[in-house]
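Obj.: predict assembly geometry.
Materials: sequence records (below).
Method: joint structure prediction, all chains together.
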Amino acid sequence: MASRDRLAVSLLLLAVLVVRASSASAQALERRGVPVSSSVESAPPPSDRLELVARGETYLQLFRRALLPGQNGALIESQEAAPLHQYIGLDARDIDTPWRKDSVDLELSAWGRAWPGRSEKEPDFDGDVQTASLRYHQGPFWVRFGRQQATGGAARYARFDGIMLGAEQALGWSATGYAGFTVLPRWDQRPGYHHLGNAADSLLRDPQAQPTRSGNWVSGGRLGYGTTALSASASVHEERDASLLSHRSLGLDGRAALGDRATAGGSALVELDARRLANARLWLDSTPHPALDVSAEFFRVEPALLLSRQSVLSVFSTANYDELGGSATWRALRELRLEGNGYLELYDGSRPGARGEVAARLLVDQKQQTLLRVAYARVLAPDNGYHSVRLSLSRRLQPRLTSTLEAYGYFYDRPIAGYVTSSVYAGTLSYQALDALNVMFGGSLAHTPYAAFDAEALLRVSYALDGAPRRTSW
Amino acid sequence: MTRARPWASSALLLCALLVALVAACAKKQGPARFPHQLHLVGLHCEEKGKPACLSCNSCHAPSQRGRAGKLPQQALCESCHKSDAREVLPVLSVVPARPNGDIAFNHDQHLSMQGIEGQCVKCHQGVLRENQSPLPPMSQCFTCHEHEQQWQRAECTPCHAQRDLARTLPQTFLRHDQAFARHHGAAAALQQNLCQSCHTQSQCQSCHDASQDLSVELRRPERLESNQVHRGDFLTRHAIEAKSEPARCASCHTPQSCDACHVARGVSGNIENGRNPHPPGWVGSNVNASNFHGREARRDILACASCHDQGPATNCIRCHKVSAYGGNPHPAGWKSTRSVASEMCRYCHG
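Observations (raw structure tokens):
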């Protein structure tokens, strides 16, 4: 039997048996005298579960100016126009269909930009659809069409226009499969781009050719099992770039609760074409005391395997780097929380690196919700490193008026463009004009190796088109 | 073209069969759940010779403290189930799972509220649906109580008792703390539906979608406690961050997007009259010259790819190919599973 036929047979078999399991449960209920579906006469009908979240955000960048040092004090008016950015989002869950209640979910998000006269090479208007999907679910099965993403496991993070099918079994088993055309990166080739080298050296590929979507597609699937105490999944993902293999990966993920106070987990990504481990992560989260969270982690990655298998560079290196470290959060008092994390990085063929941060978060005034956070971080990388200090303050000035202030300072181990420090000061003022309308003004001043003086200002108007107060981040 | 891998589909077939076998053999253990629907709306009652109709209060006493006080006693069931008590009473041992422990909740106060007016089913809708828990989900609480800030800060008290939080999901893998942020991708893979009970895919893309015109840090400057990597003076330190954790950038960006940004700002070699960013001695003009680019490339190939992965004309194989003078570029112990006739190998070996 051909491999494609075997795959189809296995998926069909899985579908049939999941249906059988759910059907058997219904029959068992009926045998016990419990009507599986009957009209509710005396009790009030349950309210419709329809949930609709529709919101928009409009951004107006008001001002930006930079003065580059080292260029005879020349004033570089980098972006002084006022670009307008618009975001919209719609999330509707449990929409009824004529044949089934609460069976359809809909999600849409998109952005647009108007920036007249920014550049002769770029359009005045631009935009993109980030997500546009429709999900139908019935019993243990669901199917989603449209622009969507597959996350985690072998897929890592893949966006595509296509279809995803899934089934969940009451005991915790689940299966998903997907296929579609890859959503190509937008910014990979800007106007004015010139390839390095001589195009005639491109033996088999025209470097100026625009990619065609028909040759860029992804497919994959996942089998998983999950309960509150234990979960594991295996996934496969294949990505084609101009009809040639870009990635063919196997992902393994697992997690187990170790008693009431700890959870351990791990994940691995195997690049099947190279037959090597692209990355692996082991972690342990624990709560030895109700006020203390501690975690430890080990991470190994071979960066070359994150490149496309069609990249010539992917065969030039097998070097790994390992990261070992952890984090801790201590809620010392209701008003005081201390955080810390530290990681050691071990690179092949280079001295080790490290990164870490300690921070204190203090709720100074509970009534005004005045929050103060102080953080110090240290980063040691192969060629350079830095110390950083960050001071943050937020305060509710009025019931509907909130402000934030921040100051960042960076101190580099080696000069960057001749400078060893940079500083940034930022602030925001948010006014909740209505439950469904928020207006925020933000601005920042910076002194960096690339700008002796850089100023930015931004106005944001957020509104809930469904009239409801903002509930979650978007 | 690469060859198909017959063993991959065989492995998938085996996994599918294993899952199917477990699904088919699985049986629910223990007695069935109490048939609320049957007792509330399915009984023939208030007719001559029939028992009185039941309501929630016929069996439950929501004002009582503790779970035992709220649930009916065996004697109450036996007052009707005289002949079949032995068969039906085991259902009393089925207690709805409370993954988050007990919560501080005043039933009397809620039942007297306008809009609820003594109707338990307004919240406990699951009692009428066999496939739902009789306990209301936390989202039911959120239809009236807005707790966005507490949720963001993972402050679950006083509704949830602190002692219960130690064994709840947020305290273990759902708590959105600094450790969770590092491995949330694996959690999303394992518990996709759980994540989607609160989050949408658009929310994932607010951070991961590098095709947006504004970064998430610029869109959300007021979120002081979110440790987004691009905050502060990221422009100056981005090269350090990329050297420190090369794989982290690749979670959102393609290597080509580095150069796209550099091109737009005129600091790339991929523009007309672009300057060479490499230090002296990077590539030697003869075999005796200082020539350390290979060592650096082995260690951080993603950095090379950010400029030189735009096709074969842009990278090392102009020198490093069979019959050219650059020598064999493959690292020691290099093995390949693909045929030299594959398109990528033919750049050098064709």
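Conclusions so far: The longest helix of chain B spans residues 6-25.
To do: check interface contacts against the pulldown list.
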